[in-house]
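Subject: design request, 143 residues
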């Protein structure tokens, strides 16, 4: 192959690489969107109790509760409620579940019926990060 041919081939390969890199970066950006989401269960799922909940999060660091460290927090699951206003302290009761050890998985006992589950991320003193850090799904717990 001539020198020019080799160079042409190289240039073509490089262009393809750039195109792929651009595509990969776009895909990564989409995936890197900050927030929380339910890995399990899926929205609309019909499940049995205890319900296995797997919590996804991107853009902060998970840390056990106790003190406030910027950019960190822990998960909560709120039963039959929406997201909590930013800055509001999440109560601790039967419908506000805290995962203050830094858990990303939970097993929740629920009586049969329809539920709205809201995952809410909050700081070390349980102060909600607001709607931007919340996700809500509906599930049905089967008898
Ligand atoms: Cu909490």
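Subject: RE: design request

Done. Sequence follows.
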């Amino acid at each position: 192959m001539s020198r020019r041919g080799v160079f042409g081939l190289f240039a073509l390969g490089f262009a393809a690489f750039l195109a792929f890199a651009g595509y990969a970066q776009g895909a990564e950006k989409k995936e890197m969107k900050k927030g929380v989401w339910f890995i399990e269960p899926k929205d609309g799922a019909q499940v049995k109790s205890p319900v296995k909940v797997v919590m996804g999060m991107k853009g902060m660091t998970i840390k056990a509760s106790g003190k406030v460290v910027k950019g960190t927090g822990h998960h909560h699951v709120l039963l039959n409620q929406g997201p909590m206003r930013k800055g509001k302290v999440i109560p601790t009761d039967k419908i506000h579940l805290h995962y203050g050890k830094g858990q990303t998985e939970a097993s929740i006992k629920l009586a049969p019926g329809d539920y709205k589950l809201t995952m809410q991320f909050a700081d070390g003193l349980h102060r909600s990060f607001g709607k931007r850090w919340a996700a809500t799904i509906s599930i049905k717990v089967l008898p």
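The chain is about 20% helix and 40% strand.
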